[in-house]
Amino acid sequence: MAITWKQFERYWYLFSLAVIIASLPFSKLGLSIGQMMMAGGWIVERFDWRRLIASLHERLTLRSVLNSVPLSFFLLFNGIVTGFKQFAKNRPALIFSSIFLFHILGLFFTTDFDYAFKDLRTKFPILLLPLLLSTSEAIDRKSFYRYMFLFVLAVLVRSGYNTWMISIHHFVDIREVSHNVSHIIFSLLLTLSIYSLLFFIFNRGLLLLWQKGLMLLILTWFIIYIITSQSFTGLSVTLITMLVLIPVLIFKTRNRLMKTILILGILVIITGLFLSLRSFVRNYYHVNPVDFTKLDQKTSRGNPYIHNVASTQTENGNYLWIYIQWDEMRGAWQKRSRISFDSLNKKNETVAFTIVRYLTSKGWRKDADAIERLKPEEVDAIEKGIANYIFRDEFSIRGRIYEFLWGFDNYRETGNPTGSTLMQRFEFWKASVGIISENWITGVGTGDMNLAFKAQYEKMHTKLSPDQRWRSHNQFLSIFIGFGLFGFLWFLFSLCYPPFVLHRFDDYFFLVFLIISVSSMLAGDTIETQTGVSFFAIFYSLFLFTRKEKDPIFHQDI
Length: 558
Known about the structure:
A two-stranded antiparallel ribbon has the order 1-2. It has about 550 residues and is mostly helical. It is built from 22 helices and 2 strands. Helix content is about 65%, strand content about 0%.
């Protein structure tokens, strides 16, 4: 069956949108191609072909063909202007895309224009995607669901690929499996997929029973993947989204039984989290008693131990700096590993210190006998920089909490946050506040953020390793640093005004997306990478500007 040109343009737009959504878990190139396809279709759709053809039909000569060239450029320019006029009438989309405008205005306060223009290229989807989606014909609910199924399928395929890669490769950091798409962004995609599946499973009449069973299997797999891939970000954002969403559901539902179940559910979750956390912290700070007056002075091989009884550092309740025999450990380690005892492990941390921590975590003495007792997989773990046997577990909440507490105690004693992800973030935030205090009105501009952080770290005399002196790892602080107080307030307004005026705060998909996005922005620079900004811009625009109908959190009969 033949299709009209208008239908082809529509199909091209829908296909381009599918390419963008399907590329999110896989490819930056796919994202770029999808956006270029959509932009090209958007321009062609507004090009006045009839006027161009009419000018050629009047008199088809070489001169008329040559004259059609400037006419084509005029029609191309006119079509783009027409599209922007449409865009200007859509105030919510225009205000959201104004986030990009602030990055342009930030050029007035910039000295590093190379980085500034790179940042503008990265952030361009914040302008492009709202422009293209808000000025195109909206999609109906059925088509929207198909796009969400496509998204879930893409995340499912990528999670399967990642699992296969994990099984055949030995990653120093398992998060490297998502190297072409940040593991943090992929965890956000996972979380959005999980809550999309929950919507389809619990929405009555939407799917057949066997289809819901299939969705439940995929949901179960995503949860298993989060655990096996050690995606602490994915688990945290999923949990935070639940803790925010449940009170909203409690407020929205008029069903007393449902309200009671939800209240009991959130109380159980919060109580369980509190008790678990308290137990982990107590266990971490529990110290196995030692009589320092009765410490053995020599190893089984007759070499003297070193005992630093003044140090209170522990690992799993065992004192770190007693029963140390460096020469024995060095000699025994060289027989077990190709990495030198006095060099750095694969995390660029001292091998000797990692060995001491690992052996202490098991309650062993630090001598040749202990090194010889290590299993080959434990030697491999130490080479990778794993300093506690608990951290070898595929996923360990206790290990993550111990890692944080260790970093906190070490930071408190030495002032050096290097090696602890959370303590490093505190140092990033401390530097961010310092920069803001000196540039709170205008900010440092679009391109000077790296220079500002470099100067601030020097000013603070930070003990952070030079290769770990990163930016704020908080999107709100990054905006404040770049554009000052007014830019920060406008950023918040740009996020909140569109859903407010469009009455979408009670839309399930947008609310879930907003919670996920804000959660990620509190602990990361979500829109500072191509995949991050594309995730943010495409779903914000899809949920607000592209759908004809919204999906309320609760139907009227619930």
